[in-house]
Structure formats: C-alpha cells, structure tokens
Amino acid sequence: MSDDQERVRLDKWLWAARFFKTRSLATEAVDGGKVDVNGTRAKPAKLVGPGDEIRVRVGPQLFVVKVKDTAERRGPATAARELYDETPESAADRARASEQHRLAATTFDFDDGRPSKKDRREIRRFKGR
C-alpha cells in the first residue's frame, strides 16, 4: 500500500474513531479550532495516518491521541478504540478534571423541604426585587 492509501480525511477519521456522532459535527469542531494535528491547526480535509498526534477537545475534555490505524467507515466502539492510543498524560488529566468536576458539584440542600411562601418573600426582599 502506498502512503496515501493509508491516510484518510481528518473529519472522517474523527467520526470513525467515535469522537463525534456525525461527520458534520467533526467538521464543525475542526473548523472551530477544537482539533490540532501534530501541534498545528488543521482543516477537515487534512490527511491523517498512523503516527500522527491529534489533540481533540470534546466539551470540557481534551484527548491527546496517537493514530494507530485509519478507517473509511464507522464501526463498533471496540473497533473504533483500536484506531488510536491515548497518551497516559491525557488520560490522567481527564481523570483529574473529572474528579474535580465531581467534587465541585454542589446541590442546594433544603433541610426542611422547599422554602415556604414567607421564606420566598424574605428571599425576594433580600435580593431587592
């Protein structure tokens, strides 16, 4: 196989590797600057192949992966996971961020249930409404 036959479009690879649900979402992410290939901003038609490093921001998570293989078609999640290797630093950073997010999540606890009508009036008066 020649080198070009082992390479596929970036948006197609991101879709096949299941980082995005549709190719159009992958294209929007690449156009929006959420994806870097080998440290530089890329276009959706950029050809990627084995050995390339891709940084993908999906929501609050940042994935740093090395391309192991390419795929023209989207397959099952287990096959998609075989297309790349995530760097250990990336996995650790995502786990740390997830734990911080979990610990930061606070809920408002009403000890005696929801506020009464009198409590709501006092809250409104305190807020200046």
UniProtKB/TrEMBL annotation:
Residues 91-102, 111-122 have a biased composition (Basic and acidic residues). One of its GO terms (molecular function) is single-stranded RNA binding. Residues 75-129 are annotated as: Disordered. GO terms for biological process: cellular response to heat. InterPro entries: HSP15 (IPR025708), S4_RNA-bd (IPR002942), S4_RNA-bd_sf (IPR036986). Coiled coil: none annotated. Keywords: DNA-binding, RNA-binding. It comes from the Bacteria. The keyword ATP-binding does not apply. SMART domains: S4 (SM00363). CDD domains: S4. Residues 8-70 form the RNA-binding S4 domain. Belongs to the HSP15 family. This is RNA-binding S4 domain protein. It comes from Gemmatirosa kalamazoonensis.
